[in-house]
Fold:
Amino acid sequence: MTTLKAHFDGKVLIPDEPVNLPVDCALKLQVEPAENSAPNPKPSNGKPLMELIEALEKLPDNPDWPADGAAQHDHYLYGHPKRP
Structure:
């Protein structure tokens, strides 16, 4: 018998660490709450893009990035001359 720690994301069980189980083999699972388990503190609001944007806004600014990166993206991505 193998004991796994996993969490349920609302659709599937996701192992918390790598597992070594046979592929394409039916398994019998017995599910019980882990000791000292707590539910996910922030449930997903169903908007993964907004969650990504919120996470990116928490990252610090990189002083090495150009301030005009969006306006001059062709220059930085493809080496075109900067536009006036």
